[in-house]
Amino acid sequence: MPLEEWIKAEAFSLGFVLCGFSRAGPPPHHEAYLGWIEAGHHGVMAYLARPSGIEARGDPTRLLPGCRTVISLAASYHVPSSAGESGQHQGRIAAYALLPDYHQVLKDRAEVLAQSIAKEIDQPLRHLVCVDTAPILEKDYAQLSGLGWIARNSCLTSRVYGSRLFLCELLVDLPLAPDMPLKENGCADCDLCLRACPTKAILPNRSIDARRCISCLTIEHRGPILTAFRPLIGQRLFGCDTCQAVCPFNRGAPHPTVLFDPTLALDPHPDLLESLLLTEKEFKARYAHTPVLRTKLQGFRRNAAIALGNSRLEESLPALRRCAADEPDEVVREAAQWALSRF
Fold this sequence. Notes:
By secondary structure, the chain is of the alpha+beta class. It is built from 14 helices and 8 strands. The chain has a 4-stranded antiparallel sheet, with helices on both faces. The chain has a two-stranded parallel ribbon with strand order 3-8. It has a two-stranded antiparallel sheet with strand order 5-6.
């Protein structure tokens, strides 16, 4: 069996659903990325504009000197969707965040793959595992290696598995034969995601204006959220699945759960009032080892206050009034004051 086929078989045995190879050359959309940064579309995510990161995203050898191949890997996830209907008292958490934090899960499995390759070739393997915190344009390499295409909503999308995919890269110094890039535009004339996006954050060039994106606003943004966007957030507490929920390729797609046990998933619709009243200890205990911790307690409670204002839940009025008057956290207090103005 050729080494490339052996690596793919090993990756599949470890729970990845897609695996492909591309040369460690410049990614095709690096110039577009520079334009995206220059336009300020990265919003509050200043780390995306660091000079060292920008250079690394244009050349994988900056991350791994001597890198010759990027092995692109994808894992599928599927949990009860948070994009469906929820009650007036319930919030919504994006599906990917309901599972144990994928960063460490994917990193551990990719490291096992690297060790297996080293054993198979019977020599040390210089390698680096990257998940989405590393400065690499992972969707470019995934498309180059034939895993899918970059859809209109900027998600890497597979004709088989849709867009509910976690991506991971294994950079190696092996000269593996590259796969054929996927040239198809599976979106064709479909623009359901553009029309469904609550804040119109999806740009014509298949990128996202993070300054408008509800995922960024509820997760990455610190401090008060612009009042113009608050009604559009609805009852979302963390992230937004809207553009993926309407994507035709996510309807009926198979979702293997080798890497992620769906029985461990959190409730996608937590109680809003209870979320507002969480203490630091309760927040960390409830969302331990999940991406929800990314928003921190302040952001989560701010989001809960905004969601209560949008739901106009009458029984939350006493708590909102107390929060608006006595809450020591200025950001949460202001969000509660706004929420009261919505009744």
